[in-house]
């Protein structure tokens, strides 16, 4: 089920996922999530994308593995990023539209 998401300035990307639960504010509990978004080209950076600051050994990094972000250049300085997340909770304010796919 494709779910279009937004950020503060416009459309961010989309999620391909199975919806487990939702409420009246459209907060969603999702499983088997493929998240795809577009961003400007990478600058020189010391930390790989999606990782933020490194986490020391024996902390949260051991409990929850960090998803691998794959990047693909689209041209014009735009990159398409994607990652797979086993479970995800999305706040309703970030939802633009949910496309229901009949099987």
UniProtKB/TrEMBL annotation:
Annotated protein name in UniProt: Sm domain-containing protein
Every Sm domain range: 3-99
Any one Gene Ontology molecular-function term assigned to this protein's record: U7 snRNA binding
GO cellular component terms, semicolon-separated: U7 snRNP
Species per Swiss-Prot/TrEMBL record: Pieris brassicae
SUPFAM superfamilies attached to this UniProt entry: Sm-like ribonucleoproteins
PANTHER family: U7 SNRNA-ASSOCIATED SM-LIKE PROTEIN LSM11
Pfam families the record matches: LSM
GO biological process, one term: mRNA 3'-end processing by stem-loop binding and cleavage
């Amino acid at each position: 089920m494709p779910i279009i998401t937004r950020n503060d300035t416009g459309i961010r990307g989309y999620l391909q996922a199975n919806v487990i639960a939702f409420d009246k504010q459209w907060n969603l509990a999702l499983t088997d999530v493929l998240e795809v978004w577009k961003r400007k080209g990478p600058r020189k950076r010391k930390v790989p994308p999606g990782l933020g600051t490194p986490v020391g050994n024996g902390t949260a990094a051991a409990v929850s593995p960090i998803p691998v972000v794959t990047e693909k250049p689209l041209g014009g300085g735009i990159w398409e990023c994607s990652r797979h997340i086993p479970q995800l909770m999305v706040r309703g304010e970030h939802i633009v539209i949910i496309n229901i796919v009949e099987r």
